[in-house]
Amino acid sequence: MRILLVDDEPALTGPLSRVLTREGYLVDITHDGAEGSQLAQTGGYDVLILDWMLPALSGLELCQQLRAQGDTTPVLFLTAKDTLDDRVEGLDAGADDYLVKPFELRELLARVRALLRRPPTLEPSPTSRLQVDDLVLNLANQVAHRGDRSIDLSEKESQLLAYLMRHANDVLTHEQIQQHLWPADERPSSNALAAQIRLLRRKIEHDGEPPLIHTVYGKGYRLGEMSPG
To answer: Are 204 and 146 a contacting pair, CB within 8 Å?
Structure first.
């Protein structure tokens, strides 16, 4: 299950992400409402956890934007705005649940589980497919396509590729990727990550095809056909 956490407090998002990861969720974090909007529309998430007061685009505006586009992904507001009017406004904007800071972790986890128990909509999700250049990933069945080729992926390969594709052309550090793919108590060595990248490259980059996964030495990896700049 994938969760997008959009909050501009690193002191909150770091520990909360680790807790959610230990519970078995795959977590993406952004501290900016505009980037949160972009990720929400392309990431195939099962739950969105949004702060209200965010840079660039508020959580309220982000939720309204997604609902106007027909996106029914469950939204949980996690915010310091605690009046009754605030709660009503958030729920009327399309949120499914509302939790006021400070909060108890057990309650947050219970609310996430409750949102995930809700039956899915009958309409196919518009975010179940990712594409970068000529590479397409179907999140529902873990199958990628490049040109005329169909590429079967393991669960871990699919998770890794999806994370890279959601952040296309961004440099992702080793730590960011490891945090996304493995729980904190199962974090492997950097050699294990390099091996996972190598296996994925063999599948998506055949002879004659432009490379898509690039090593940024001393930093991490970037997915994209052309080098930035």
So the answer is: yes
Distance from C-alpha of 195 to C-alpha of 208, rounded to nearest angstrom: 22
103 and 137, same domain (yes or no): no
Instruction: Tell whether 100 and 14 lie within a shared domain.
Output: yes
Q: What is the mean pLDDT of residues 80-100?
A: 89
DSSP string covering 136-182: EEETTTTEEEETTEEEE--HHHHHHHHHHHHTTTSPEEHHHHHHHHS
pTM of the predicted structure, to 2 decimals? 0.57
Residue 48 predicted with pLDDT over 90 = yes
Enter the tokens of residue 180: 């996304």
pLDDT at 44: 78
Of the three residues 116, 143, 178, the one that is the final residue of a domain is 116
